[in-house]
Amino acid sequence: MYTNEQLNAIFSSTVGFEFEFFSDKDLKQTKKELSESLNKKIRIEDKAHSEFSPTRDEYKMEPDNSGGTGMIELVTGPTPFNEAKLILAKMLKWIKQNGSTNDRCSIHINLAFDLDKTGPDLSMSKLDIGKFVLNFDEDFVYNEFPNRKDSVYAKSIKFIVPLNGMTQFSSEGINWKNYAFVNEKYYGVNFTKIPKGYIEFRYLGGEKYENKYNSILKLTEHFILSLYETLINPKYNKKDIAELKSILEKHKGVISSYKSYQNFKKEFPDIKLTIDLSSAKSMIETYYPKIRENLFNILTKGGMTSGKINYDSDVSKLQIKDTELNKCFELRGVDIVDSVIKGNIIGCDIFNCELKSSSLFECNVFGMSIVDGSKIEDSYVSRNVEVNDSYVFGERGVFSGKMIGGIFRKGRVTPHATFDGAEVIEVEKIK
Q1: Domains in the chain: boundaries
Q2: How do strand 41-44 and strand 398-399 relate by DSSP bridges?
Q3: Whole-model pTM?
Q4: 180-190 residue pLDDT tens
């Protein structure tokens, strides 16, 4: 049972939905029926993520082939909670009777508070992200939607690392800006929407989500109350401080290693560090102040504890080899060789690796690499690479590999590219 205070918070919220689904009917008829069912105007847009911002009275419907050809996304405007409940019920009922969903379909929930009712204290601009992440009960979500745990499109937000090696814990005046949190949209909570005045929750979805009205409503309330509690009680309590301290304790060795190469060797005996493939102590100590910031990122955001790290002074770039990173928050701008990675990879050259449930952006994948269940955006994939049950998109990407299953939404392909059971939606053939 909710307290009166909690009920007031719920009923003072505004809710927007983004429904991804397939319709058994053509686009014109789908628009007509949904407009009548929801009692709203609906615009049909030519492309996904169009510039039109829906309102309470006018929604938009646009193509979104991330789930396959014909997938539609209906985006509502911010709506008072009581009305949003009805929109949710009517929409899910319509999908059950006239359409379908698959495991790539999601339902996103956009939340804010009506500041005319609550006052400025509940403005999203005042949200302390660190406080929210520490307090948010993610297991409650996964109990209702277990299929979404470890999803490449809605990864866990439970990741906090010190922003740099000089960060020192203090229970006085904790500032979340001293720590690195999730900072792109493919997480369970998309904090990048805060400047627009709301928060996007991306956890929910999957095949037949239209049958889970009660769970979706319960979790919407959970999201609202989680935001409310953080905004109304912004100070870090003893539990928050203890949890943050325990998180930093895990990175104690990394922070120590930031100070000197000698400390690095002591804290990470299973990582071999070289400069231009030389293990000469004098050379490493000379370069260590130059590379330690990027090294710090590999240790914290990559979670690396064993393997090899080399600094190539000719190209000013770190290279990692023979490592296994199963919970990689982010690898950026490094070469990755003969490794197993699961996580976010940005602007990296990848050679002979296994990539699982990962998100690749502006990467180059070479050699006999295998990519499973991942998202590949604006990247180059060479001819010997095998991509399984993944989602490939981005008009700047070039694909020359073998794709088995999954969806090739958009991009350029060479004559070497082959597709086996993959759904190819839009390609530009190049020589």
Answers
A1: 4-241, 261-429
A2: unpaired
A3: 0.85
A4: 776 666 789 99
